[in-house]
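Lay summary. Proteins are chains of building blocks that fold into shapes, and those shapes determine what they do. In this project we predict the shape from the chain. Here is one chain we studied, written as its sequence of building blocks.
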Amino acid sequence: MPGWRNSGRKSAARLAQVRRAGAVGTMQNVSERDAFAALYEDRLAQLDAVDDRLVFGRLDLDTGEAQYIGRIGLTTEDLQRLMVDWRAPEAGNFYQATAFDRQGVRRRRHLILQGREVKAIEDDVLDAGMLTDDESLQGEGALLAALNSKRTGRMSDIVSTIQSEQDRIIRSSISGAVVVQGGPGTGKTAVALHRAAYLLYTHRDRLKSAGVLLVGPSSSFMKYIERVLPSLGETGVVMASLGRLMPGIHTVPETDADVAAIKGRLDMAAIVANAVSNRMRVPAQNRILEVDGRKLTLTPRQVRRARERARATGKPYNEARVTFVKILLRELTEQMTELVEAGNIGNNADRSYLAEDVRTARDVRIALNLCWMPMTPEKLISDLFSKPEVLEFCTPNLTPAERALLQRPADAPWTESDVPLLDEAAELLGEPGPGGGPRAGAAGARPCAGSGERKADPGQHGGRRGGSAHVSRGAWLSRTGSRTPGRPRPNAQRATAPGPSGTSWWTRPRNFHPCSGGCWCGVAR
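And here is the predicted shape, written in a compact code that computers can read:
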């Protein structure tokens, strides 16, 4: 089609012009250049993806107009429409019109192409007056032709043969969840993929700020369907199997069906919350801390009071720890100041340095970390399944046999059934502080600098337990191909998990975000 070739040539020429200009001028000029380059690159990728079977239908309307339906929309230089995108409202007649409800359509023509060559034409005559027209072509029908076509080992789109029932699902409202049910081979996956393409077309402004993540059960399945969305004109969707949803985590299949069933229970969310609460500990007796030769006392009452005040903030575990540490550091600094002043009566020298001495003291760092250790999702879930005493404490509703099934060595590989648990732990823990792992050893807290978000390369850690492989979802999506970084988040929900004594204390929003500065503020170095 000339319009397709012209659009491709123009996009290529404009992209070449932008690249020749180079990154010169002000920062705004550079940013605009990059934006235009991305725009033209996306357009070329879209045109290349829909090259095969670009147009697949034509509507002959009561008005005498012939309307072509294709994978994308095309116009001429003077904005005269050549082809209607299959997702446009006016293209709905191609799928919904019947002989009983023609919707202004006299004939629906299916164009069966191979590349750019028309191989066959199939007509659905909706106006009985056209049955006497010698030009009206009849055949076995586009749907039967598609069913009888040769299979390639990869899923192909059904855009040219969507049935009216499928079309209603595809074009349904964006609000709420849409569940498509049916037996094997009934087209559930195909409908879901076409719905994703439709939503991106119809609600692009709304979805571009969050991105779209398509999740499948396995890597083989994702390879099977990977060409469907590009063939529908969408090249910016992130696709991942369940085992790849956690950044930096490489999983193996869960071989034991009984273990997978236990991990898939809804009450595993409460078990993960119990594991988080188990990390906040109150010492059984006073602890003596040495700072520059002076003895400070950390009491269970101080720890308990600081812990409750930190929990009351409603922040995730690692962020609430900042409040906990600040409170205890302030109280220990006051003790240190009183001891110094008692030995230097009448000396009014500035003693603000004492706060730093307390914060960096080895005994203080150890004591505060023992009470509330910075934690990653990997370390939390690994300890839950590898330490029998932790598993028993956190799973009061499981039987001994079920606990035995969950137990495994600390170096066991992650499985696909672990991914939802790691994700739940990540929500409860929040972003780790600088350094990311428990051995960051930070006892103090520094103010958030509001700098750019710290990012870890998922490929550097290989999914090892206890490492700092957790990165932000937005960073991961941007690396894996999405041009609209960010994780699609559900509506705000609140969940309350039981504390160690059975009381409810941990309340947090499921759609929490990092701090306004975008950094991983938390604990000091």
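What the prediction tells us: The radius of gyration is 31 Å.
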